[in-house]
Amino acid sequence: MPYRFLNPSIIRQSAPFKVDGLAIPYPEFVPQLYNLCMSLGFRKDLIMPSRAFCSDENQGWPIILLTKHFGTFPFNHGRVGGIVAIDRHGPHAHHGEDSVIVQASHVGYDPGTGVYGKCIRPKMKGTCISNSCGKITHVITPYLEQYEFAQDRIFLLRDDKGRHLITVKNSFIDFFSHPVKNGLVLRLENIAKMSDNGHILPAATFSTTHSYELTEDFVKRIDSTGYTWKGGEGESIGTNLTDDLFYFREDLHETDESILLERNLIEFMPTIVTAKNPPLRAAKINIQLEFARTVESIRRGVDYQGKNLLYVAGLNVDISEFEGFPATTYFVPWAAHIQLKDGTPKEYQHTIEQDKLFAMLTEQESVNPDQADLKVEIGRMLKAPHFDIRNPKKN
């Protein structure tokens, strides 16, 4: 089914998601998370961690650290792109007396350039730089391509009559008689003058385009950027095609599990494709929507009733090998849901928002006295007796 954009009077927006100053290295974050659990009354050796991460190899060290500090390999609660598999609440809840969920979409980061979205693949020959997260990039790429095409095919100009015009390809115009079925739709009602009877009439019509006269407010908006109007055919709109001037009406592209990711992002795609770092913006939005959806599923469900549960959502920032230092991951907390088996105090009955969650984590010690020694545990496994494993006897 195609995604049908509605033009509602109530607009949903993404919340401000801060990164600066809130990123915690995973070797510090995970012991702080464990100690936060202890401070909430969780029971040593009875905590079952779970992670909802993407499947990329650069998510491995965070998983190993969760194993080390919680003493068991974490349950897998995730799908591609950092989508939470809410149908796995039941199995996870039955694997431990107390439950912890860490959900994170991830994005690569280059500390040298400050650019998000790429990482180095160390198991490829040479210096192989690719997308991280590749799934998020794959989902948003068709929309980025449409946006970049529109930037080059929509023109601003001032004609010889002194009128300020916009010239638009017909494929971007939602004509009453011929609406856009798939693709980028320009919000002409936010740009062009409207007649007294509510119609947007063209100032000129050509073989594949229409020109419309701009409103005074829109002209002032463009002028405020220091723009110099051109005559003739004008010049492409470029970065002046901002997120409030268009939307996408699309059949969803994905056919596998990543369709869940595309469904999350489609409504916010204009803000994603116009962002300085689209993969980062997409990851932030997905984290917010998945957190809200998962909390709702927990509160409405029965799987975690009567249990201690800490559900933390955030952003995993992947940093490749850098100036001789190994690859690492940082966690940027977003929000948390807390419930306690003996009754949840009033201070935890509402969502723990970003600033408070960061403070709660960083107040904890970054040393965990209960952490497992993975080398010792593997050594014990190697010293264990060899069991006689055989086919079952036939009846």
List the helices and strands and how they pair.
Elements: E1 2-3, E2 24-25, H1 26-39, E3 47-52, H2 60-70, E4 75-76, E5 78-79, E6 83-84, H3 89-93, E7 98-110, E8 115-116, E9 118-120, E10 129-131, H4 134-153, E11 154-158, E12 164-169, E13 183-186, E14 204-205, E15 209-213, H5 216-223, E16 235-236, E17 246-251, H6 259-266, H7 269-273, H8 278-300, E18 308-319, E19 328-339, H9 354-362, H10 374-383
Parallel strand pairs: 3-4, 3-7, 7-18
Antiparallel strand pairs: 1-17, 2-19, 5-6, 7-8, 9-10, 11-12, 11-16, 12-15, 13-17, 14-15, 18-19
The biggest sheet, with number of strands, parallel, antiparallel or mixed sense and barrel status, is:
7 strands, mixed
Q: What percent of residues adopt helix (DSSP H or I)?
A: 25-40%
Contiguous low-pLDDT stretches (5 residues minimum) are none
Number of domains: 2
Give the overall pLDDT as a whole number.
91
Broad structural category: alpha+beta
Radius of gyration: 26 Å
